Amino acid sequence: MLKDLISSLSNKSRIYFCTQIFSRFDTPEVDLTNVESYCMECILALAEPSVQEFAHMMGISAPNAAYKVNALIRKGYIEKTQSMLDKREFYLKPTKKFLDIYYTRNDYADKLAKRIEDRFSAEDIDKFEDMLKIIINELTPELDQKNYNISKNKKLK
Question: Given Cys at both, which of 32, 69, 111, 149 links 36, Cβ 3.0 to 4.6 Å?
């Protein structure tokens, strides 16, 4: 039962993500391919990764990652910022052009949170929040950003 509920919630999240990402990005002014959309999701999830970290998370070669990154730069969706510690290293940062499109999809998280608040008691919500924190921080180690962020001091840039 628990496995089925987790699977159902995961499926609903994926379906919502796909409908939002593809409907928003399937307009003449947005020229992202489906693969590029997923690349942008990974870049956002990693919070300004290096090209190497991006390649590692995507499970692709460094040259393939560099090709995808260069295409996204040409289209104006990401920019590179140079590391202050290692001038050879650059970090990937989404541009305002991408963020303006992307963050309109967070509306659903707001709707769902509001529905949960309307439906459940404060005690239940507190317990649910505690459980989600444990799931996110302890029970999903294979999805932990730290496994992909190789640069230890990159935030000093």
Answer: 32
